[in-house]
Amino acid sequence: MPRRDTSDGASARRDTLERTARTPRRRNRRSEGPVTIDPAPVRPWRLWLVWGVGVAAYMLSVTNRTSLSAVGVDAAVRFDADASTLSMFAVIQLFVYGAMQIPVGVLLDRFGARPIITIGMFLMAAGQLVMAFAPDVGTAIVARILLGAGDAAIFPSVLRVVAVWFPTRQAPFMVQLTGIVGQSGQLLAILPIAALLHATSWTVAFGTLAGLGVLFTVLTFAVIRNRPPGRDADVSVDTKTGAIRAVTSSADLRQGFTESWAHPATRLAFWSHFTTPFSGTAFVLLWGFPFLTVGEGLTPAMASLVFSVYVVAGMVIGPVIGALSSRHPMRRSRMLVLPIIAVQVVAWLAVILWPGPAPLWLLFALALALSTGGPASMIGFDHARTHNPSHRLSTATGIVNVGGFLAALLAILFIGIAMDALGAGTPDTYSLEAFRLAFLTQLPLWALGAGFIVFERKRTRVHLGLDEPRRRRKRDAHDERDAPRHD
Asked: Per the record, which residues fall in region Disordered (predicted)?
């Protein structure tokens, strides 16, 4: 019997299968459940170009965020600002950043990453341009508001780019890599920006940052796309599984917020993120450089080296803490979060109680201790991811992210108020003793956060059925005590 030529049929079937694999699976519009889809194939050069522009934009946003860290004394002189007023620059910036987290998430779900990251870069460029020519405190505060609003849009947008463009198996690694590369922007704020300001002028330094912001406004709009070619569905990402899902319904934001906060694990995540990173943020964002140069008497170059230890150590420690968090999910608080808080407290007390200026090795140890705060704060997002369903995960993540910035702005404000109260509100009156007493205002924040971590950890374990409620334990013990004994 002659064989039939099936090559055309086989080819047609292969073409059909390939088209089916490339086409996202959809459900009926009435369906409420999410639909898992796979990323469309993307040429490697385009994939890395989109990510490269996004992560470079994030690096610039970190540079802008910390641009006052190495020039805090110059800012105090330029605006004739006391310590409380100088604190307000960072406090207002962080407040706007935190307040914008949930709205930015909603806008990303609605419009995608490209317009949001572009608008964010434009706002940061505008903020730095205003800062470059600001003649007084009021104008400088407007600049920091613009900067905080723009900064709030960048990191969530880049995370969305990673989740939508990269295959599921690569997304977790790319998120870690994005964070590590982006945080290196702190080094640009500490070294080149400070050197440029001292070599030229305030206007030139901040005008340069504004120019870079304009450049990346154009680059992000020209290069970044909401989704790879061939995909026409709006998507969100389940960070618990890494699956990319087509959005077929929207949840009520208020209900999502209430349900997220009602879960004790979300509150545990909030307080974990509240307590671990704030001291390092306050140190790097505003008060660390004046403390090291004026208080401890270091040269600007040596103070920059201490800052560099903080940044590089955080980049090294981050993957280690992430691996331990993944390996021991039920012991994150006791094994990682609470010990890291204790390490930060001990390091600060050692510096504060040291007779006279602290030796350089102790300041390096302080930077190393503070560098653990940022990676440890990511454990809060692990809690949110583990214990919240995908339909309210973004809301829970926004709640958690607010915690760290709330604590940081409180720490910055408390330190500034304490400096003024101690009569050391201007650079001419800064002193080591005043700085040491002012940094003690961090202790109540650590105590508050650690207390709530212990409390919410117990409630989370009860909620998950890992522990029994205290009342039940007491009742069981009472019943056992009153039960008749049979000898």
From this structure: 1-35
